[in-house]
Amino acid sequence: MDTRIGVIGIVVDNREPIARQLNDILSSHADIIVGRMGIPYRERGISVISLIIDGTTDKIGALTGKLGNLPGVHVKTAITK
């Protein structure tokens, strides 16, 4: 099955209550995550996570769907190749 390369941008409004759930979701999809960078943006009271992914559109959709269902989590995806 063909895989696609992409970037997922995640903005978390209030990290404390959902950090465990978010990390559990990312861990369960580790097979498509090539790289991850997370930065706390203290001045705005948010956290920003970027993921480089390589997976099928179904797997990418499953990951972003689960993340987007978490309260206070905003997700955008760019699929490139």
List keywords for this structure.
4 strands, Alpha-Beta Plaits, 81 residues, four-stranded antiparallel beta sheet, alpha+beta
Q: Can you describe this structure?
A:
- With 81 residues, the protein is α+β, with helices and mostly antiparallel strands.
- It has one domain (4-79): ACT-like. Chain A, domain 2 (Alpha-Beta Plaits).
- It is 32% helix and 43% strand.
- It is built from two helices and four strands; from the N terminus they run E-H-E-E-H-E.
- The chain has helices at residues 15-28, 57-68, and strands spanning 4-12, 33-41, 46-55, 73-79.
- Strands 2-3-1-4 form a four-stranded antiparallel β-sheet, covered by helices on one side.
- It starts with a strand and ends with a strand.
- The model has no long low-confidence stretch (mean pLDDT 96).
Please write out the topology.
Layout: E1 4-12, H1 15-28, E2 33-41, E3 46-55, H2 57-68, E4 73-79
Antiparallel strand pairs: 1-3, 1-4, 2-3
CATH architecture: 2-Layer Sandwich
Number of helices: 2
Which range does the strand content fall in?
35-45%
Question: What share of residues is helical?
Answer: 25-40%
> What is the residue-averaged pLDDT?
96
Q: What's a concise summary of this model?
A:
The chain is an alpha+beta fold and 81 residues long. It is built from 2 helices and 4 strands; from the N terminus they run βαββαβ.
